[in-house]
C-alpha cells in the first residue's frame, strides 16, 4: 500500500529540484486572484497559464499548475464571504454562513476560518492520497451511474437544511431549479425547452444563472446602503482577527474531518467534483450539529464544513487523475494535458513505473497547502479592505466584473443576458419569500440528476431491485437514510426536552405565584 | 376582499408570479411531451413537472390571507441570510429597481455599443443611483473602471470582446 523506498526517492526528487519550489508562490497568487473573480473558473485560470508551463521542466510545470489549482480552490471563497458571490460553484455553500458572518462584522474571522480549513484539509486530503492512491483507483472504477445518482440525491438533501419558512415554496423552488437545469439536449439526444435558441442546446449555463439569482437577492439591495457592512466599527480589517479565525478552526476537528472525507470521496468521482462536495458537507454538518438552528446565520462550522470539502476534493480528483488518467473536472483535464505535453501519460502504469514521481507530486502539494496559509493571509488582508470602500464605488465594479465574468464563461453575450434574466427571477423569488438557494442547487444538480437517473434506468432495465446488486449505491443510500433518521430522532428528542423544560418553567412560575399569594 | 364575516387580503403580485411559474412549467412539460413520449425523454422531467404543479397548487392558498393573520405576519423578524428580505422603504426600492433596470440596459447594449462604452455608461449610472453626484468623481472613476476592466478581461479571456474605442 505505502512504498517507503519510493517515498525516500520522492524526497530525493524534492531536494534535487528545489528550483521548482520557486513556482509555488506565483502559482498560488495566480490561482487566488483569478478564482476570486466571479465567473472566471479554475479551469480558465489554468488554461491561461498552461502555455507558460511548456517552457519548464516536467516537475516545475506540475508544481506551477498544481499551485494555481491549490490557490484557486481557496480564492473563490473570498468573494463568497465578502460579497455573497461565490467565485465558483464549489464555493457556493461558503456563502450561507460566510456572508452572514460578514454582515455581523466577522468577515476577518470568517476568512480566517475558510483559509485554515482549506489549508488543513488540503494537507489532510493529500496525506490520505499518499496512503491510498492505489486502492482509491479501484474504488473509483467501481462507481457507476446508480452511485452517481445516489450522490446527486444526497446533494439535493441539502434543501432540507435550507430552513425555508414555507416548505411548499422551498420544494416548488427546487423543482423549478431542477427543470431549468434539464433544459437543452439530454444524454439520450432529446431537445427540450430551448425555445429555438441555439445557446440553450447545452442547457442554461449554471455560473451566470447562479450569479444572477444571488445578485438580485443581495447585490442590488446594496444600492440603498452606504457600505456593505453598516456599522463603522465592524469594517476594520484586522490581521489579529484573521489569525484568531484561523486558530478557531482547530476547535472543530470533527467538522474538518467529516468535510475532508466527504470532499475526498466526492472529489475522486469523475464529473462530480467539489461543487456537490461542499453542499453535502454543509448539509451533513448542519444535520449533525446541536446548534443547527444557527446555521445560515453566521455559524463558523458552516464555513469550515464547506471549505474543508472543497480543499480535500482537490486531493480526491488528483488521485483519479494520477491513478487512472481520468480527469475529474476541467482543472485536472488541464493538468492531464500538461502531463501529456511532457510525454507522460498518467494511469496505472505511471503509478507503477514512476511511483517516486507520484509521491513527489503529492508531497509538493502538501508544501503548497502550507504555503497557501502565508500567501492566503496576505491576500485576504488586502481583499478584506473591500468592506471599507463605499458601495457607490464598489458596487458598479462588482456588477461589471460579475457581468464580464459571465461573458468570460463562453465568450457570448448570452452569459450576461442569462445573468440579467435570473436576476429578475431572483428578485421575484426574494420578494415572495422563496429560498433562492433551492433554485441554485436545482440548477447545479438538475442535469446530473437526469443523466445519472437515465443511465441507471437503462442499465437496470427499469428494475428497482437492481439497486441491491450495487453495494456501493446501497451503502450511500444507507448512510443517507441513517443520517436522516438520526436527525429526525435528534430533533424529536430536542423538541421533547424543550417541551419538558417549558413545562417545568410553567410549573415553577405557578408555584412561585401560589407562594407569593400565601405570603 | 370580504367573504362572510372575515376580510381577506390577496397578494396579487404573488399570484401573478405563481401564474408565470405555472405557465412555464406547463409549457416545458408539453414541449417535452411533444418532442417525444419515450421514457428516455420524460423520465425526470415529467414527474418533477407534475410535482412542481402540485406544490404550486399548495402555495396558491398562501396568497390569500385573513387580514388579521397578514398583520400578524408583518411583524419585524430576525434577519436570515438564507431568506433575504427586500428593503421596504420607497426610496430604497426605487434605487434597487433603477439599478436593476440599468443592469438590464447594460447587458443588452454590450454587443451593440461596445463593451467599453457600455461599461462606462453603466458605471456612471450605477454610481449616480448609489448617491454619487460630483461630476469630478463620476466621470474619471467610470472611465478608469471601463479601461481597467476592458484591458484586464481582454488579457484574461481567450474570446474577442467587441469595443468601440479601446
Write up this protein:
The complex is a heterodimer of chains A (519) and B (166). By secondary structure, chain A is mostly helical. Chain A has 2 domains: 4-469, no CATH class; 472-519. Chain A has 21 helices and 2 strands. Chain A has helices at residues 4-16, 24-35, 42-53, 58-75, 77-83, 92-103, 107-141, 145-156, 167-181, 206-219, 239-248, 253-268, 274-288, 300-324, 330-341, 348-353, 355-383, 391-410, 414-431, 436-460, 471-518; strands spanning 184-185, 191-192. In chain A, β1 and β2 form a beta hairpin. Chain A is globular, with a radius of gyration of 24 Å. The termini of chain A are far apart. The relative contact order of chain A is 0.17. The model of chain A has no long low-confidence stretch (mean pLDDT 82). Chain B is mainly alpha-helical and 166 residues long. Chain B has 2 domains: 2-73; 90-156, no CATH class. Helix content of chain B is 67%, strand content 6%. Chain B has 7 helices and 3 strands. Chain B has helices at 12-35, 39-42, 45-59, 67-73, 90-113, 115-129, 135-156, and strands at 2-3, 6-10, 64-66. Chain B has a 3-stranded antiparallel β-sheet with strand order 1-2-3. In chain B, α1 (12-35) runs antiparallel to α3 and α6 crosses α7 (135-156). The model of chain B has no long low-confidence stretch (mean pLDDT 85). The chains are: A mainly alpha (519), B mainly alpha (166).
